[in-house]
Amino acid sequence: MSTPGMIHLEHVYPHPPAAVWRALTDPELHARWWAAGDVRPVVGHRFTLDMGRFGKQPCEVTAVEHERLFSYRFATGSLDTTVTWRLSAEGEGTRLSLTHEGFDLDSPLARGAWEGMKGGWPAILERLGAALGA
User: Fold this and answer.
1) Contact 95/9 with Cβ under 8 angstroms?
2) Are the C-beta atoms of residues 66 and 87 closer than 8 Å to each other?
3) Residue 133 pLDDT more than 90?
4) 5-16 mean pLDDT
5) Confidence category of residue 2, pLDDT binned at 50, 70, 90
6) Residue 77 has what pLDDT?
7) Cα separations (Å) of 131 from 22, 31, 49, 115, 117?
8) Please, what is the end-to-end C-alpha distance for the chain in angstroms?
9) pLDDT over 80 at 28, yes or no
10) What kind and span of H or E run contains 115?
11) Is 81 helix (H, G, I), strand (E, B) or coil?
12) How far apart are CA 35 and CA 127, in angstroms?
């Protein structure tokens, strides 16, 4: 069952949580698989993700649990959504859970973004896996 205005995906990587955490929170690694920006695991930290043709999107970190949870507001002032990453050890690897929520499906802008990201997130998670293997 899915919740309207929410995207939820899970992916298992054959890398320990520390490696996946680093890919989510290290700006240089983050730029390799998704977008450039000064992402940092510090609650209250504000940063901008350069989304190319979709512009620069302001973000603010809202929750951090080292190697377990990383959440931030995404595109504040326009989409006003929340991206949450949850990590859990699974064998010698990591189960990564992505929840991107808060899309106002009554808004044409948000509905278009939701439809685009719903189709785009799986490829982004594949690129994350490729970045981990590099």
Assistant:
1) no
2) no
3) no
4) 96
5) low
6) 87
7) 11, 10, 18, 25, 20
8) 35
9) yes
10) helix 108-133
11) strand
12) 11
